[in-house]
Design brief:
Blueprint: H1 3-8, E1 21-22, H2 24-27, E2 34-43, H3 44-56, E3 60-62, E4 70-78, H4 83-89, E5 95-103, E6 108-116, E7 121-129, H5 141-147, E8 159-172, E9 178-190, E10 196-199, E11 202-209, H6 216-223, H7 233-241, H8 248-261, E12 266-268
Parallel strand pairs: 1-3
Antiparallel strand pairs: 2-7, 2-11, 3-8, 4-5, 4-8, 5-6, 6-7, 8-9, 9-10, 9-11, 10-12
Length: about 280
């Protein structure tokens, strides 16, 4: 089956009948806005195997209007010099990302500020904004009031830099103490040049926990010989789409991804959401 067809079929998998659903309302207790994140890179076939193992381990799956895989549109803002990207590249531990995100299933859009501490914790703050302000959040007075005291940057010095689109499956354990997101069909666009790219067959899993506690999901991944791999969708997208950008550190990351997937196929000049 072509990979795009497999993504399309995600909402029709038989295994969903064996996995208890969880609604958006119930998920409010598992927000984990101040958390420790562990990331993994998986291949498409491994995602399907992991979902089977997760169903047997009692994980629940979020559903929105009956859909388990839902689309996300994200727009990352940065300075003209892309200083947020370069801080990450240069291993600055305390750093920030600013983005807007639209959840396709609900149509809700947020302005989000993500702060990474030097202890590895991620703190996310967000405010809902109008969909029409997705590409210009500063036009929303309430969003600007939210942004100004929380950001290390002024609204005037940042602008849209990288757009991403992906399909996300969200799992939660039975005790509601950890949340797992699996992002598939990822594609990236440098909005300043129009350059697009994707890595065929790659999925990014993120395990979000309040602290270092036992995780069945970590054990499932370990049994599948899938080890953590630190990867930023924003930095990966910038590396793949921005010509001439400093990316020495992320060359090694691409080699790690290639090794993890058993090969690396980069698709460019994507015209739509179908590979």
């Amino acid at each position: 089956m072509h990979i795009a067809e497999r993504y399309t079929a995600l909402n029709d998998l038989e295994l969903w009948s064996r996995m208890q659903p969880i609604t958006l309302a119930e998920m409010r207790s598992v927000k984990l806005m101040n958390r420790i994140d562990t990331k993994y890179v998986l291949g498409c076939d491994e995602v399907f195997e992991l979902l089977e193992r997760s169903a047997m381990a009692g994980y629940r799956v979020q559903h929105i209007d009956g859909r388990r895989a839902v689309g996300y549109d994200t727009l990352y803002y940065d300075t003209a010099e892309r200083s947020m990207y370069l801080m990450h590249h240069n291993r600055v531990l305390t750093r920030q990302k600013v983005r807007t995100r639209t959840y396709e299933a609900s149509g809700v859009t947020f302005l989000e500020i993500k702060d990474k501490t030097n202890r590895g914790r991620t703190r996310k703050q967000r405010v809902e904004i109008a969909r029409s302000h997705f590409e210009a959040f500063a036009k929303d007075a309430a969003a600007l009031d939210f942004f100004t005291p929380r950001s290390a940057y002024s609204a005037r010095e940042i602008s849209p830099a990288i757009a991403t689109h992906f399909q996300r499956i969200t799992l939660v354990n039975a005790m509601l103490t950890e949340r797992i997101t699996i992002d598939l069909d990822l594609r990236y666009t440098d909005v300043r040049s129009g350059t697009t790219a994707a890595i065929e067959g790659m999925a990014i899993l993120e395990l979000k926990q309040d602290g270092h506690v036992r995780s069945v999901m970590k054990e499932l991944l370990r049994d599948m010989r899938i080890m953590p791999l630190k990867v930023s969708k924003y930095c990966l997208a910038t590396t793949l789409t921005v010509a001439g950008i400093k990316h020495n550190r992320f060359k090694a990351k691409l080699r790690d991804i290639e090794k993890r997937l058993g090969g690396l196929t980069i698709i460019t000049n994507i015209q739509n959401h179908n590979l």
